[in-house]
Every structure is written in structure tokens, then in C-alpha cells.
Write a structure and sequence with these properties.
By secondary structure, this protein is an alpha/beta fold. Helices cover about 45% and strands about 15% of the residues. The chain has helices at about 20-30, 50-60, 75-85, 105-115, 145-150, 175-180, 195-205, 240-255, 260-280, 280-300, 320-330, 330-340, 345-370; strands at about 10-15, 35-45, 65-70, 90, 100, 120-125, 140, 175, 210-220. Strands 1, 2, 3, 4, 5, 6, 7, 8 and 9 form a nine-stranded mixed beta sheet that branches. The longest helix has 26 residues, at about 345-370. The relative contact order is 0.10. Mean pLDDT is about 85; it is low at about 340-360 and about 360-365.
Length: about 375
């Protein structure tokens, strides 16, 4: 493949110290039934044998290219891959995952047939054969997009925003490259950060005029990589950086979309922050809850927490969610104790509130219970 050739699909593979899984990943790209592709391997300062594995594929197959750079993080790696890409469409393949052979041929065909900005597919949760659990089930189908969403056909996500609360899973999709370039859609290049698919996914669906979903699954999303970022609870505020980028994008680059998308963005934040809070160890929850509380106050007082009725039925908050957001914002001491309780009797609950805030907090809890009768 010459340097001037424009392939049908550019596959971006961000790589950092993943030699254990990398050969399987790259081989799945090499064996795609859609042959007119390029595979851009971005080596982010690996110190293991990853670069050697990449170079062996570059020598074997001219469709493989390498960007070898000092470690600068996932977002910067992906942006450098996007700068180098020449394909009509962009695919993303994480270096510990792998694709079914017909993946790109199917996605390219559907994207072309429907003239899409983005096509989103479902995927498989994958465990290696050596995993002790999962009852020897290597793959479990994950419906990131529901049957109802698939049946929408081609649509504008801002008008039907269900995809905004789906798992970002940016690697089970195909993106038209000139669409990404036209709207300046790139990753947040924060060194050492995590969750960097969050703002990228939001920007894609915010700007897309023609999106569609498929119930087909081709990507095997590895669950047992002990080095995966989802297993690193120390990156407490990375998700907050992503949401700050989403706000910046609406304020500075797409103010025309801000009225429609601010309530959607606020609901995505509520779900993401709540999920992140409960995945953290109890000693880290206190730090994160302070940030969560402050930002929920901003969203409530900014008028972005809308009730799910009438025109806001598809993206508003249920009454339970509104109550929870208010408690996080204005009574985080109560919410914080509840987030650390995992069952137990009344005595255990009483002790937890007493330890956290003394008798004033216990009295507040009792007062709230009595007011609800």
C-alpha cells in the first residue's frame, strides 16, 4: 500500500505494555475479510516486548504502520493516530481485544449503504480460557444498543438521545473520518488519564446527523486484563476531566447545541459519577463525593435537572433520580454514609451515621424519616 493510497478503513490500535495480548489483537486486524485497510499501531512508550511484536507485523504486512513515541497517554495516542489516518472511516481496536474476521466488512458496508456518520454495534464480554470464573463461558453478549434503538434506523441522536446513556464502547463502532475532522472531534490528551472515551463519544453523538445501530457483535472486549484502566481505582477524578471537556465543547465549539444537550449532558454526568462513586474504595469515596456534590449543585441551580415528562420524557430524571441528585447536592453527608453501607441491621446503620456525623446527623436522618410519613 503506497503512502498516497486512501484505504477504506483506518484501524487505530493504541498500545502500552500489552505484549501478553497484542499478537492476538493485531492478527485479528490482519485477517479481516475487508482487505483495503490500514492498521496504525500507536506505541505509547511501551517498556515490554510490545514494539517488537508491532514491528513483526509491519515487516509482514505493508498495511501495518507504527507511531513510536514516549509515553503521553491514551488521548494523545489516539489523536496522533487520527492525524495519520487516511481511511474513509475510522475504527478503534484496543490492544487487549480482538475482532471477528468479518467485522470491518460488515460495518463498512452498512455505513456506506446508509451514508452514516457513525455506526454503533454491540459486542462480546470476553474472558480468557484461564479465567477461573464465568463457568467456562468465554463470551457473553453485551447489548450496548437495545432492539428498540436498532429499529430507530438512521436518525439524529440529539433528537432521540438514548445512545447517550449507553456504555461508551467506542471500539465497537465505525466513524466517518471527514465527519470527525469537520467537527474537530478529538480526545482529551490528559497524560495518565482514564475514561477518555467519555467525551469523545459525547461529541460524536452530539454532532452526528446520521447515526444507526446494529445488534450484531464482532468485538471481543477482554475482561480479565489485570492492567486495564477499569481496574485502577486510583484515577478518582479522571471522569470529572472528561465531563469538563464536554461542557467546554458545548460552550466554546457547539453553543448551538447547548440548550438541547445540557440536560442530556447533566444526566450522563449523574449516571457516570454515581457509577464511579460506587466502584471506589470507601476511603476514596469521600474525596469524590465532595466533587460530585458541588457539581450536582451547579447542575440543579443551572436548570439542567429536568423531570422526565412531556417533551423531556426520553432524557429527563425520574422522581427518584431527582431526589437522589438533591440529596447528593445538599445533603451529601447522608448520601455518603448510605453509599458505604452494604446491608446490616438497624444497629449497624445507626452506628454508621453516628460515626460519620455524630448525633446531629442521626437526628437529621430521623427527621427525614418522620417527614416522609
Amino acid at each position: 500500500m503506497s503512502d498516497t493510497h486512501s484505504p477504506l478503513v483506518s484501524v487505530l490500535v493504541p498500545i502500552c505494555n500489552v505484549e501478553k495480548y497484542l499478537e492476538e489483537c493485531l492478527e485479528s486486524a490482519r485477517m479481516q475479510t475487508l482487505e483495503d485497510i490500514e492498521v496504525i499501531c500507536i506505541n505509547d512508550g511501551s517498556t515490554d516486548g510490545s514494539l517488537g511484536i508491532i514491528n513483526s507485523f509491519v515487516e509482514m504486512d505493508p498495511r501495518f504502520k507504527v507511531i513510536d513515541k514516549p509515553n503521553s497517554g491514551y488521548g494523545d495516542s489516539m489523536n496522533k493516530g487520527l492525524e495519520m489516518a487516511r481511511g474513509k472511516y475510522i475504527a478503534i481496536l484496543e490492544s487487549d481485544d480482538f475482532l471477528e474476521p468479518e467485522a470491518l466488512e460488515y460495518m463498512y458496508g452498512e455505513a456506506e449503504r446508509q451514508e452514516l456518520d457513525v455506526l454503533k454495534c454491540n459486542f462480546w464480554l470476553y474472558w480468557s480460557a484461564t479465567s477461573a470464573d464465568r463457568l467456562n463461558r468465554h463470551d457473553v453478549y453485551f447489548p450496548a444498543v437495545s432492539t428498540e434503538m436498532v429499529l430507530m434506523g438512521v436518525h439524529r441522536p440529539v433528537d432521540v438521545p438514548d445512545i447517550f446513556w449507553a456504555k461508551a464502547s467506542i471500539w465497537s463502532a465505525l466513524y466517518r473520518r471527514d465527519f470527525l475532522d469537520e467537527h474537530g472531534i478529538r480526545f482529551l490528551p490528559t497524560p495518565g488519564a482514564s475514561f477518555q472515551d467519555t467525551s469523545f463519544s459525547f461529541k460524536v453523538y452530539a454532532c452526528a446527523e446520521r447515526a444507526a445501530y446494529s445488534s450484531r457483535a464482532f468485538l471481543h472486549y477482554r475482561q480479565d486484563n489485570e492492567k486495564s484502566s477499569v481496574n485502577n481505582p486510583g484515577k478518582v477524578f479522571c471522569v470529572c476531566d472528561e465531563h469538563a471537556e464536554m461542557s467546554r465543547f458545548l460552550n466554546e465549539e457547539r453553543s448551538d447545541l447547548k440548550p438541547a444537550l445540557d440536560p442530556i449532558r447533566a444526566k450522563v454526568k449523574f449516571f457516570n459519577y454515581r457509577w464511579n462513586l460506587y466502584r471506589l474504595a470507601p476511603n476514596l469515596r469521600v474525596q469524590f463525593l465532595e466533587r460530585f456534590s458541588a457539581e450536582m449543585r451547579e447542575e440543579i441551580e443551572g436548570g439542567n435537572i429536568l423531570r422526565a415528562d412531556g417533551p423531556f420524557e426520553r432524557y429527563g430524571f425520574s422522581q427518584g433520580e431527582i431526589d437522589e441528585a438533591n440529596e447528593i447536592a445538599y445533603e451529601s453527608d447522608l448520601y455518603g454514609v448510605r453509599s458505604t453501607l452494604e446491608g446490616g441491621g438497624k444497629l449497624d446503620t445507626f452506628k454508621a451515621y453516628l460515626h460519620a456525623g455524630g448525633f446531629p446527623l442521626v437526628c437529621k436522618v430521623i427527621g427525614k424519616k418522620l417527614s416522609r410519613r
